[in-house]
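Duplicate of #3305? Posting structure anyway:
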């Protein structure tokens, strides 16, 4: 499982991509909730402990999300470099959310997410594995 999450080598089919993506998002949400709770508890020790534990967890899960996207792109025989524009597109939606351009970016980002989730990969072995 760690190799799947933290290595960009190989391919990842639809169902494992969906499962691992859900896992990383749930862990990220729980870590964010833990950070928010620690800041609202008004305890200096709680905030420090949360920062030491939860921030590395968030960074690790973000890294895992990037690797999952790279492996999913490999399943289509695409370079992992396409992950850059996919993430720029996703983060760009927040920067322009109050404009028509932001709505367009959101729709394109949602479409790319659906494509990664539902389109079957190449059935034959490709440049990134069998």
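Output from current build:
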């Amino acid at each position: 499982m760690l190799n799947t999450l933290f290595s960009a080598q190989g391919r990842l089919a639809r169902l494992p991509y969906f499962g691992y993506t859900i896992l990383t998002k749930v862990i990220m949400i729980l870590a964010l909730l833990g950070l928010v709770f620690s800041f609202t508890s008004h305890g200096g020790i709680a905030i420090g402990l949360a920062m030491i534990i939860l921030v590395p967890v968030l960074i690790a899960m973000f890294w895992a999300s990037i690797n999952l996207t790279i492996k999913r792109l490999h399943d289509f025989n695409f370079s992992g470099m396409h992950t850059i524009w996919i993430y720029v597109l996703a983060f760009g939606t927040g920067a322009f959310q109050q404009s028509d351009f932001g709505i367009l970016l959101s729709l394109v980002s949602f479409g790319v997410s659906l494509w990664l989730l539902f389109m079957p990969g190449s059935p034959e072995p490709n440049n990134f594995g069998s």
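Confirmed duplicate; merging threads. Residues 44-75 form the longest helix (32 residues). The CA atoms of residues 37 and 120 lie 40 Å apart.
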